[in-house]
Design brief:
Chain A is α/β, with parallel strands linked by helices and 1011 residues long. Chain A has 28 helices and 44 strands. In chain A, the strands form 14 sheets. A seven-stranded mixed beta sheet of chain A has the order 6-5-19-18-17-7-8, sandwiched between helices. Chain B has 219 residues and is mainly α. A two-stranded antiparallel sheet of chain B has the order 1-2. In chain B, helix 5 packs across helix 7. Chain B is flat, with a radius of gyration of 25 Å. The termini of chain B are far apart. The chains are: A alpha/beta (1011), B mainly alpha (219).
């Protein structure tokens, strides 16, 4: 066997730096928390004195004795006054709805326990998202219980009531005959759009403007040019055999990531009836989640991206015998070999290839359209006749609006669901122009930047409190229903507009009449409207006849490419991107998302400037050193993060940070003498990178030329990437642990078990194995499908009451997530290949943790689950020390939520752990129990698929299989029989119940390759 | 000096007496064990009358027991299914009826004091014998008797489906005027029964398996 490939989690691990090796020495890299006082130093004032300690101790002993004598706590049990027949207290009820965490509109089902939603999951029957749900969608249930959500209307910055606000606004509007503008995000609901238009019809020259903070307006503009219709095609990644992406993060944040991940992973199936593995080529400057999954990744700085696109256009046109729509010669030469390979692959897959670009640049998108047209992809992998309505933002019109505001033509501006004072380029100009407008209204859930500068603030419902409907793609209508009564005195946008128009049908009535008139006639399956309506509410969606929206024939005149800006030696191309957690900043108040490690950088609670390792060594920067990033008048400081695989000329900064009001998290997590606040009062989490956005032609550009200047300051990043690592240091033999295994398609075709041959001696500690006679639960994770999107991390957190610990605790390696995604690189700094590996308790049959617990708090059950019994645990942490996978989490504190109302989201089927207790993945034992009880109640045997555990349910890529390994027919047994199946550290003979399937890259060469 | 000695002796005697009286009156249990707990309820509902004398099924009022982890406390409207018509006790009604006949007057309604609380909670106007929703004062707040610690998950479903009688754990509720906790509800008590089932010592559950794994209750 040849020398096996080396995988590493971070540069420090690959280099085996001294600091890194030191952290491997001890179980916990720092001593346990205690009151540390320097000799001779003053005892901290807040600390407990000896006297008060003794007093408290005396009282607590006496108190606990008395408590033992008492007759039980007086606890009330309050039944419903009038119980609906179908409602049984203590039972979970599921309602289908639509996620509004972004504009993609994935189908969801919410789990309601005794009237309150506690968990959101993907709706398996939804035509687009098909059961998947991203991290944001999972976390939406927490934002419902955010007590800082606006509860009451505000007038001129003061809390008010609806009567006053309605009166003031209607009086103001009555005086106007023109100049009324409504600014919203993408509106994919026809009924909402109709209501806005009805409202605006009273005013002359009024307009409804749609604006997406992270816009893909250029795609729509380009289709206006080439196909005569301003439309967003419905991308069909499931039909694509060759995917070429120019900086489009379609698995992470682009347009509809869950739907795209579903499609993408269905095209990458090595088993089953039609095995296929699409080829995915990514050209990008930063390291995106999508790029980390690509079969081939080409580092291209954003300036050269257009040159690549132009070269591809020319070569394809050449090969197809048509004229390339490009004037002039090529400005920049690109790697001809790579280009040739790309062209060959694309031409081989005519009609089954897909070229996408995430660059919001008109010319760039025109060329993409030309290429897709030339390859015959329209009608197959891009659907323009039944387009998508998931992003309608129009950059041109937002700039027109800004111009009109400055010219004083705008007399009333209603801003709904977007936050332009935060996210718009030249937001200061916008805010300034806003001051002179007589009527400014913001419809918002939070008291955000825009709500702070308008006259009237209307609090909006949370998505789980409102009725609604979205036509996501032509013919696919997704329905939202409220799953609880509004917690505040909030309204929906349509309710406000209706009441200001003088008629007040409820949202439900309005929606029903829309359905009766517009949707019901578009189908013929169900003849009765009531039946159709009930069915649609039950399903959460309706499929109806798509409207016939034929696009015009392709046409494109030759382009005069704009001269690319050239960067001098000291300037860099700044790439602004969305993180999967914060997106455009609207989720900044969600602690689950703030504490979700970024899938690539693995940093929490911050944004930062990603730089290439070469830049770091040239400027002598270390991770966490602060730099000043300057573009024109905008100059902000960020800590740096050193990102292998990033282009040397690129700096990448995440949008969505620096939101006003995020200092609320100064109180999150543990509070103790050495603890540092996650954020200081009056400051924000991260910096607002939207300030670097600018107008370029008609579009908002997310690329800018910047200079970089070290400041000499440091602010260490809370980085989880080498926490819980399983490397063996050189001095202990430096044995290679093949945690992740990958191979190439060529090698796989020769031998399906390639990349999975590791000879090792297996040591047996026990005389004989325990025989599992009943169920034997197990799980398998397909690394080839897993994209690292981290939906499972938040899904698990929501299901299992995993606390949020705050930035400082994460920095001290005390993050509490039961499932983590280990991200491994291989290769050098320049070109890395990435593997994402979800890691959680492996439920070893020979579990090392069980042998060392002095109180038998962690024991195996007869179904193969390694149980953790919280009420037995005394917190010795021996088990965590002995765990080879480093998946055990210790409650160093009682982690209080920053917001008490958030406790309503806790799952009542799970113990909430207290300080001093160890915890870890339980394989969702509460779900196993529930499924068993239900099967018992129905008097039947359990069948494969009865249990879906939380991480498995949320996975948009269907990478996780769970089931009974003793059932020969189950999907888990099939996965175990797969030659790609392996178990992590199997050479140690821990016999884990969790298995993995090797990753197979669609590459020709069996060796290291380009990567 | 002598007085002081006598006083301290007296104090000691009083202290011991207090201890003896306290412990004998308090009927102490181990911490967390609330066996015998029988708190007063807002309505002095009699299980003896309803499930004993009238032989009503437990499931009529506690339907969750088959479908949900918890048995549930009946909603006030469940009571109203009968008590829309039955407004007073049998004996009182009989006496009243005799009195009415004796005095040769129209039959009088009897509204028991306890049921009046129920009518108030649901907003039932006994003058009209009709619901006046705006009069409703809201659900009755019962005092909880059986309670397990937060780290224990007990589910009624498997027990009821297996055929465990309610009385096995809750005692002879049909004889109780006011419900008391009969069992200790301690872990030892649970596990002993599970072991007995596995050893075939529970006649009605022979052949069944009752798991004694930690994770069955603790998660």
């Amino acid at each position: 066997m040849k020398e096996s490939k080396k995988h590493w989690k971070g540069i420090e691990e690959r280099e085996q730096t001294t600091a890194y090796l030191e952290t491997l020495e001890s179980e916990f890299p720092e001593p346990p928390p205690r009151l540390d006082v320097e000799p001779g130093a003053e005892f901290p004032e807040a600390a407990v004195s000896r006297r008060s300690f003794l007093t408290a101790a005396g009282f607590s002993i006496a108190g606990s004795t008395l408590a033992g004598c008492s007759r039980g706590p007086l606890e009330k049990v309050i039944p419903l006054l009038n119980r609906p027949e179908e409602m049984i207290p203590g039972r979970a009820y599921w309602y289908s709805s639509t996620c509004r965490g972004c504009t993609a509109g994935c189908g969801i089902v919410t789990k309601n326990r005794d009237g309150r939603p506690i968990k959101i999951e993907g709706n398996p029957e939804h035509p687009l998202s098909r059961g998947g749900l991203c991290a944001v969608g999972q976390a939406m249930v927490l934002s419902l219980y955010d007590s800082q959500r606006l509860q009451d209307p505000m007038i001129n910055g003061q809390p008010g009531n609806w009567a006053d606000l309605d009166l003031a606004v209607t009086e103001g509007l009555e005086a106007l005959s023109d100049g009324v503008f409504v600014l919203t995000g993408t509106v994919s609901s026809p009924s909402e759009r109709a209501r806005i238009n009805q409202f605006l019809a009273r005013f002359e020259g009024s307009e409804h403007i749609e604006y997406d903070p992270v816009s893909c307006s250029a795609i729509l503009d380009a289709h206006q040019q080439t196909h005569g219709q301003r439309r967003l095609p419905h991308y069909r990644f499931d039909r694509a055999r060759v995917i070429v992406s120019f900086d489009a993060d379609f698995l992470g944040t682009w347009i509809s990531p869950v739907e795209f991940t579903k499609g993408y992973s269905s095209g990458r199936t090595l088993e089953g009836e039609s095995p296929q593995l699409s080829h995915h080529l990514q050209l990008e400057g930063r390291m995106s989640l999508t790029g980390s999954n690509a079969d081939q990744r080409i580092k291209v700085s954003p300036d050269d991206l257009f040159a690549w696109l132009a070269a591809l256009t020319r070569r394809l046109a050449d090969r197809s015998g048509v004229d390339a729509p490009l004037a002039g010669p090529a400005a920049v030469e690109v790697d001809q070999d790579l280009l040739d390979q790309m062209v060959e692959r694309l031409l081989d897959a005519r009609g089954a290839s897909l070229v996408v670009s995430g660059v919001n640049d008109f010319q760039n998108q025109l060329l993409v359209n030309f290429i897709n047209h030339l390859l015959g992809n329209y009608g197959t992998t891009l659907d323009l006749d039944q387009p998508s309505f998931q992003a309608n933002g129009n950059d041109r019109r937002i700039f027109e609006l800004l111009g009109r505001m400055q010219a004083g033509e705008v007399k009333a501006l209603l801003i709904a669901g977007v936050n332009p004072a935060y996210s718009l380029p030249y937001a200061d100009q916008f805010t300034q122009a806003l001051e002179s407008i007589p009527i400014t209204v913001a419809f918002a859930e939070q008291f955000d930047e825009t709500a702070r500068v308008v006259r009237y603030v209307c609090p909006l419902h949370h998505a789980l409190e409102a009725w609604g409907e979205q036509e996501l793609t032509s013919g696919v209508i997704s329905l939202s229903q409220p799953v609880l009564a509004p917690l505040g005195r909030t309204r929906s946008l349509c309710q406000c507009l209706s009441s200001w128009m003088g008629n007040e049908p409820s949202d439900l009535e309005r929606l029903r009449s829309h359905f009766r008139e517009e949707v019901f006639p578009r189908q013929s399956k169900i003849g009765d409207f009531e039946e159709f309506w009930n069915q649609s509410v039950h399903d959460g969606y309706a499929r109806v006849q798509p409207r016939s929206l034929a696009a015009a024939a392709f046409q494109l005149d030759a382009l005069e490419p704009a001269a690319a800006a050239t960067l001098d030696e000291n300037s860099y191309a700044l790439v602004l991107y969305e993180k999967i957690s914060m997106r455009d900043g609207r989720h900044a108040h969600n602690p689950w998302l703030q504490e979700l490690p970024d899938p690539v950088t693995k940093v929490v609670w911050d944004n930062y400037a990603c730089i290439a390792p070469a830049v770091a060594s040239r400027l002598k920067l270390q991770e966490g050193d602060r730099v000043r990033v300057t573009a024109g008048n905008t100059s902000l400081e960020f800590p740096v993060q050193i990102q292998p695989g990033q282009h040397e000329k690129v700096i990448a900064i995440a949008l969505g940070y620096g939101r006003q009001g995020t200092d609320r998290f100064s109180k999150v997590g543990a509070r103790w003498i050495q603890g540092k606040a996650t954020v200081l009062e009056g400051e924000t989490i991260g910096g607002n990178a939207f300030l670097y956005t600018a107008r370029q032609g008609p579009n908002i550009t997310f690329v800018n030329a910047v200079s970089l200047e070290p400041t000499g300051q440091r602010s260490p990043l809370a980085l989880t990437q080498t926490h819980h690592t399983v490397t063996v240091p050189e001095k202990l033999g430096g044995a290679q642990r093949h945690m992740v295994r990958d191979t190439t398609l060529t090698a796989y075709r020769e031998d399906p078990a390639s990349g999975n041959h590791f000879e090792h001696e297996v040591l047996q500690l026990w005389d004989q194995d325990y025989v599992y006679t009943g169920h034997h639960w197990g799980m398998a994770i397909d690394l080839n499908r897993c994209t690292g999107c981290s939906a499972c991390v938040v899904g698990c957190q929501a299901e299992n009451n995993v606390p949020v610990v705050g930035k400082d605790e994460v920095y001290r390696r005390r993050d509490m997530h039961w499932i983590r995604i280990d991200r491994y690189y291989s290769g050098d700094d320049q070109d890395v290949e990435t593997v994402h590996q979800p890691m959680m308790c492996n439920h070893c049959d020979h579990a090392p943790c069980e042998a060392v617990c002095p109180v038998l708090a962690t024991v195996h059950n007869d179904e193969g689950i390694n149980q953790q019994i919280y009420n037995r645990c005394v917190g010795t942490r021996y088990c965590a020390n002995n765990c080879p996978y480093k998946v055990r989490r210790f409650n160093w504190f009682d982690y209080r939520t920053e917001d008490v109302r958030e406790n309503l989201v806790l799952n009542p089927d799970i113990t909430t752990r207290t300080r001093g207790v160890m915890e870890k993945c339980s394989l969702c034992i509460q779900r196993i129990q529930e499924a068993k009880y239900e099967a018992k109640r129905e008097g039947r045997e359990m069948v494969d698929g009865d249990i879906k555990i939380a991480c498995q349910q949320s996975c948009p890529a269907d990478a996780i299989v769970f089931g009974d390994m003793n059932d020969p027919e189950s999907r888990i047994t099939q996965a175990i029989d797969n030659p790609r199946h392996y178990r992590v550290l199997e050479e140690m003979n821990f016999r884990p119940s969790i298995g993995y399937l090797t990753k197979v890259r669609n590459k020709e060469d069996a060796g290291e390759g380009h990567g | 000096m002598k007085l002081r000695k006598q006083l301290s002796l007296l104090a000691a005697v009083v202290l011991v007496a207090c201890y003896v009286i306290f412990f004998s009156v308090a009927d102490l249990n181990l911490p967390g064990n609330h066996q015998g707990y029988a708190p007063e309820q807002p309505i002095s509902f009699s299980h003896r009358l309803h499930s004993g004398d009238l032989k009503m099924s437990c499931l009529y009022c506690h339907p969750g027991v088959e479908k949900s982890p918890v048995a549930g406390i009946p909603a006030a409207t469940t009571c109203m299914n009968c008590h829309r018509f039955v407004t007073g006790g049998w004996d009182e009604t009989q006496i009243q009826e005799q009195q009415d006949q004796l005095e040769n007057r129209e039959a009088q309604f009897i509204i028991s004091d306890e049921l009046a609380k129920l009518y108030q909670s649901v907003g039932f106007d006994t003058d009209q014998m009709a619901y006046q929703e705006e009069m409703a004062t809201g659900p009755i707040e019962w005092t909880r008797i059986h309670r397990l610690p937060d780290f224990v998950y007990f589910d009624h479903r498997p027990h009821v489906t297996a055929g465990v009688a309610c009385q096995s754990c809750h005692g002879p509720v049909e004889t109780m005027e006011r419900v008391a906790q009969i069992s200790t509800l301690s872990m030892g008590w649970c596990v002993n029964c599970h072991r007995d089932v596995n050893n075939g010592l529970v006649p009605e559950l022979v052949g069944r398996v009752a798991s004694t794994e930690c994770g069955v209750c603790h998660y």
